[in-house]
Amino acid sequence: RGSNGAAEARIPRLSGGAAVWAAGLVLPVGAPPLARGALLTDEGRLIALGPADELLSCVPKSARRDFGRAILIPGLVDAHTHLELAALRLPPAPMADWIVSLVRETRAWPSSLFLASAKVGAAGALAAGVTCVGDITASGESPAAIADAGLRGVAFHEVLGLEGDRAGEVLERKLSALGRHHAYRGALPGQPAAGLSPHAPYTASPELYRAVLRACRERGLPAATHLAESPEEARFLREGGGDFERMHRELGSPAGLFRPPGCSPAEHLDREGALGGLRLAVHCNQTGPADWERLRRAGAAVCLCPGSARFFGHPLADAAGMRRAGLSLCLGTDSRASSPSCSLLGEAAALGAAGFGAEELLRLCTLAGAEALGLGGEGVGQLRAEGPADFAAVEPPGGVPLSAEALFHPESRVVCTVTGGGVRFTAG
Q1: Which residues have C-beta within 8 Å of that of residue 295, sequence separation ≥ 6?
Q2: Is 30 helix (H, G, I), strand (E, B) or coil?
Q3: 5-74+381-426 and 76-369 share one CATH topology?
Q4: What's the CATH class of domain 5-74+381-426?
Q5: What pLDDT digit, counting tens, does each position of 33-48 carry?
Q6: What is residue 269's three-state secondary structure?
Q7: Is the full-model pTM beyond 0.85?
Q8: What is the CATH number of domain 76-369?
Q9: Domain boundaries, given as residue ranges, for the chain
């Protein structure tokens, strides 16, 4: 071990597992950039950030990793994904047809296949620099895959049902499954936090939404929902009929129970007392200023998924307008079944045309997602002393200056992902 009095005076006693990770640029998020900087990690935590020449001397040479011409950033936060669908590839189609194909394909999947698919999704997330997820699980299997991969985050257990008089029964079944999930938590350290997700206004009754949100308040759980994703959804709530009614009929669900409220999806939930208490509203492509105000009053963050919107040919939400309206925004990749890529940096790059600067895009990929999931106070989504040692190294192509802008260059690549101070992915 080398000696550097200035650095060591600021650093507590280290264990034998301490390591230093250096790069040409460190972008902590919430703190100024650090040229030729480094991170000192120990026992899963970030101990210090500082100049590389100071921190490298704090550990033996064998515990030093220098990424050279790369950028160290906080681990990315994919605030909306469906890891358990990662092994599924469906061709682009109108959304109603796509949902029918998805349900028919997965309806007979055993739990082992959902778990295997979620493991594929977790590996893909790590390869994209993601260290934290807001995952939607219908099967309840993905939390084990998340823990096994060393990811952190929230697993939102999905709830569906249009029969309002059975809302309590449907919720009890889901909570019972959630109890089983908690029962084996001790066998799998690092399990993600649990949440609930009424699927969408066209598949969950207002009674079910209210029951879920009440249960979340009582248990201190976060809630998320898909909202106003497609023109078909907006039309179904406004008028009924159309592709979504056909979809319900083909899947054997009781579409006859659905009474179109004659308004937007967000207004519908607001009228029904089913908007306040939502932590996360996903997509929101079919929303305007009045809906933005409803979401802002409800305290819900909006998670945008540009790649999924492109897949379906949906108009993307007006992100710039949402920002001006004071909404909290974050980003998600959705699922590999509806998006060709799991690159969150690629998702962010799509917002560049809407006037978002590189530093703001990085925040949307990191701290904004952590805050939306309720994990910002734990240091997730930024590089700060005593926070988790979760980060990624991104290497821009030769000739591209090291900067926040370089992260979103189409040829930049994630070369290493670290969670809890351990390497989880290294590019070949």
Answers
A1: 266, 275, 281, 284, 287, 302, 327
A2: coil
A3: no
A4: mainly beta
A5: 999 999 999 999 999 9
A6: helix
A7: yes
A8: 3.20.20.140
A9: 5-74+381-426, 76-369
